[in-house]
Specification:
The protein is α/β, with parallel strands linked by helices and about 325 residues long. About 40% of the residues lie in helices and about 15% in strands. The longest helix has 23 residues.
């Protein structure tokens, strides 16, 4: 799919002329970086935005500009507490949203962690798989009845998915030596596969789900990166032959999310992986050369992940 937008497009350029009055959006991870910019861009176009964050005080401080944009653009912005590393918190958040009862036209699963030290969530899941995938898996499935017919779900994946497919036999590194980038790759592949499985289940209601690669951006996502993890990433770039990592600004990084959520044709992006405000091509072996690995869009792989995810969280959706 080709179009007028690309790697350097910003949120404001992508949404130029788009009016979102009467639309309601849920965005996770609105305490910094891409989440804040995504919320600002939608609220500035008159959308009513609900931002979810683990640390509400941090999110309140970070989103002053979002509230100003909402006031100027005729939208609104509110916060809800959500800790994706705790299924109790995820379920409580979903219950609050369900009790409120108002539908969402857009859901953007933006929150995540990257290259963390080895650890576990409150429920015993490996930190990156549990936070990035399983937390969103439970949240979005629980609020699926609230997603309006014809709505859109956007799940942030990453070019890092090219590092590794999911490992459903050992999702928590119980028998595999832990590598923070392999764990990140597994989690980001899971994000893409979740979009495939979700799209298959919700498309009969006109709801389409896709995953997006925002690009390399300097945000809080890299807060766990040590000199060793940075060196490992740079070595991967070097050995892949793809050259220097090209960083985007935050508005450029958030552009693909808002493009997929509010601009792109749902039938075109449904079940797909998008980057640079386009549908991605099949990837090469390079982890930074762009594109998507076939295993991250494989419907059978998506179904295996869905079944394993239900088993791990103890719920069927």
């Amino acid at each position: 799919m080709t179009g007028q937008f690309g790697a350097k497009s910003t949120t404001d350029e992508v949404l130029d002329g788009i009016a979102l009055g009467g639309k309601r959006a849920l965005i996770t991870g609105v305490s910094a970086g891409l989440g804040v910019e995504t919320a600002r861009a939608l609220a500035a176009r008159s959308a009513d935005v609900v931002g979810a964050a683990r640390d509400l005080a941090k999110a309140e401080e970070a989103t002053g500009g979002v509230r100003a944009a909402a006031a100027a653009g005729g939208g609104s912005f509110t916060l809800v507490e959500l800790d994706l590393a705790s299924l109790a918190s995820v379920r409580a958040c979903a219950d609050r949203l369900q009790a409120d009862g108002r539908p969402f036209d857009i859901v953007i699963a933006n929150a995540g962690v990257m290259a963390t030290p080895f650890g576990h969530t409150q429920d015993g899941f490996e930190t990156q798989f549990g936070t990035n995938h399983l937390g969103h898996f439970v949240l979005i499935n629980r609020i699926a009845p609230l997603i309006a017919d014809g709505g859109r779900v956007v799940i942030l994946s990453s070019g890092g998915h090219q590092i590794s497919d999911v490992d459903l036999a050992d999702p928590h590194f119980a028998s595999t030596p832990y590598d923070p980038w392999v764990a990140y790759g597994r989690a980001k592949t899971a994000n893409a596969l979740f979009a495939v499985g979700l799209d298959q289940r919700l498309r009969q209601r006109g709801i389409r789900a896709c995953s997006v690669m925002p690009g390399a951006i300097h945000t809080d996502l890299g807060r766990y990166m040590t000199p060793e993890t940075v060196a490992a990433l740079l070595e991967s770039v070097k050995t892949s032959g793809s050259g220097k990592l090209e960083y985007k600004t935050v508005p450029q990084g958030a552009a693909t999310s808002v493009w997929a959520a509010a601009v792109a044709d749902g039938d075109a992006v449904g079940g797909r992986y998008c980057e640079d405000c386009q549908i991605a091509e099949t990837a090469s072996a390079s982890i930074t050369g762009g594109g998507v690995q076939p295993y991250a869009l494989d419907p059978e792989n998506a179904e295996r992940l869905w079944a394993k995810s239900e088993e791990l969280v103890g719920e069927r959706f």
